[in-house]
């Protein structure tokens, strides 16, 4: 299984141009741009999945729970060759596969249909359990959520179960832009640590710090990375 960093000629600097191809109302721009650096580092340097391996049993799974405002996700997928860049200009159109929420039945490389808050992490737990049951111990499962999704009880049930089940191949990235209604003493990472996770808080725009956090060892425990970005206004 190979990484995708050499699959296309696109670079991080090209992503703004790709996002600009997607026009129209209801874009949820801040929801998209807050995820851009995390998505790029994951797909460029961490995830073992590409267009040729998008259906392979041994691939890493990436689940975008923060599916409202998916333009950065679409831009990264296009940059990595999962679908043609020309699709981006049709974003949100009646006959376009690129809807305002991703659809796994229409878009190559998309693992789940998402956008409703609180679904991605429970699906990630189920995916990790399913892989374990099949004896597939190598694939990693990555879930990207927004901090406001932690207002949903389903996420707390999922993270509590993942810690007790020692789902070492499960990883969660929390985009923290101060959107959550509730807080926790010590910050979001402390909530995961209390449930038995490994957790790191980093600057969500610092690619080197993100990569180090994504690849930090966490034997016997699921792993959470809290990516702090600018406050949403």
List the helices and strands and how they pair.
Layout (H helix, E strand, L loop, with lengths): L14 H6 L8 H5 L2 H11 L14 E4 L6 H9 L40 H14 L7 E6 L6 H12 L5 E7 L11 H7 L3 E6 L3 H8 L8 E6 L5
Parallel strand pairs: 1-2, 2-3, 3-5, 4-5
Helix pairs in contact: 3-4, 3-8, 5-6
Describe this structure in words.
The structure is a single chain. The chain has helices at about 15-20, 30-35, 35-45, 70-80, 120-135, 155-165, 190-195, 205-215; strands at about 60-65, 140-145, 170-175, 200-205, 225-230. By secondary structure, the chain is α/β, with parallel strands linked by helices. The chain has a single domain, classed as 3-Layer(aba) Sandwich (Rossmann fold), CATH 3.40.50.970. Strand 2, helix 6 (about 155-165) and strand 3 form a beta-alpha-beta unit. Helix 3 (about 35-45) packs across helix 8 (about 205-215) and helix 5 runs parallel beside helix 6. About 45% of the residues are buried. Residues about 1-5 have low confidence and may be disordered. This is Transketolase. It comes from Streptomyces cirratus. Pfam families: Transketolase_N.
Q: How would you describe the oligomerization state of the chains in this entry?
A: single chain
Approximate shape: globular
Spell the H/E element sequence: HHHEHHEHEHEHE
What's the number of domains?
1
Please state the second-level CATH architecture: 3-Layer(aba) Sandwich
- Approximately how much beta-strand content do the residues carry? 5-15%
Write out the strand line-up for the largest beta sheet, numbering strands in chain order.
1-2-3-5-4
**Alpha-carbon distance between the termini?**
41 Å
Q: With helices defined by DSSP (H or I, 4 residues minimum), what is the helix count?
A: 8
Rg over alpha carbons:
16 Å
- Secondary structure class reads alpha/beta
CATH first level = Alpha Beta
How helix-rich are the residues, as a percent range? 25-40%
Low-confidence stretches: 1-6
CATH superfamily: Thiamin diphosphate (ThDP)-binding fold, Pyr/PP domains
Number of strands: 5
- Quote the average pLDDT: 91
**In CATH terms, what is the fold-level topology?**
Rossmann fold
